[in-house]
Amino acid sequence: MKRKDAPHQPTAWMRERLSDIEARARAIRQAHSEPDGRIDTLFMPLYRMGAFGSTEEYMCDHCRAYVPERLIPVMLVPLPRLVVTGGLCPACAALEGIPAEKGEPR
Ligand SMILES: [Zn+2]
User: Fold this and answer.
1) How many Å lie between the centroid of ligand 1 and the Cα of residue 65?
2) Residue pair 93/75 in contact by the 8 Å Cβ criterion
């Protein structure tokens, strides 16, 4: 994973998650027998999708803490046309070098 202006290294957990997600994205593209350039951007969850308003929606994807007031939204682009979204608690976001202020552009 490369992020501009962010020399911070992701944790082993994040590297493992993104490696798994990237492998699934490649498998999806191969299963559809499309040349890589013909499939639109894939959106995949960092851990799992929570139903709207569910407890899961407000849980940290890493440590599983329930933090409805403090979940930090995360959006990563580990490969071209692969967008990974999720949420981390402030402590886990800090470990990944992600700013804790909500609404800050990334
Ligand atoms: Zn956490």
Assistant:
1) 6
2) no
C-alpha–C-alpha distance, residues 48 and 88, integer Å: 12
Indicate whether 105 pLDDT > 90: no
**Residue 106 has what pLDDT?**
44
Confidence of residue 51 (pLDDT cuts 50, 70, 90): confident
Domain definitions of the chain by residue range: 12-95
The pair of structure tokens assigned to 65 is: 């803490």
Measured in angstroms, how far is the CA atom of residue 55 from the centroid of ligand 1? Answer: 14
User: Residue 87 C-alpha to ligand 1 middle, in angstroms?
Assistant: 9
Q: How far is the CA of 96 from the centre of ligand 1 (A)?
A: 10
Residue that wins the pLDDT comparison between 54 and 8: 54
Q: What are phi and psi of 59, to 5 degrees?
A: -100, 145
In sign, the C-alpha dihedral spanning 28, 20, 69, 53 is: positive
Ligand 1 midpoint to CA 64 (Å)? 6
Q: Any idea which residue has 């979940």 for tokens?
A: 71
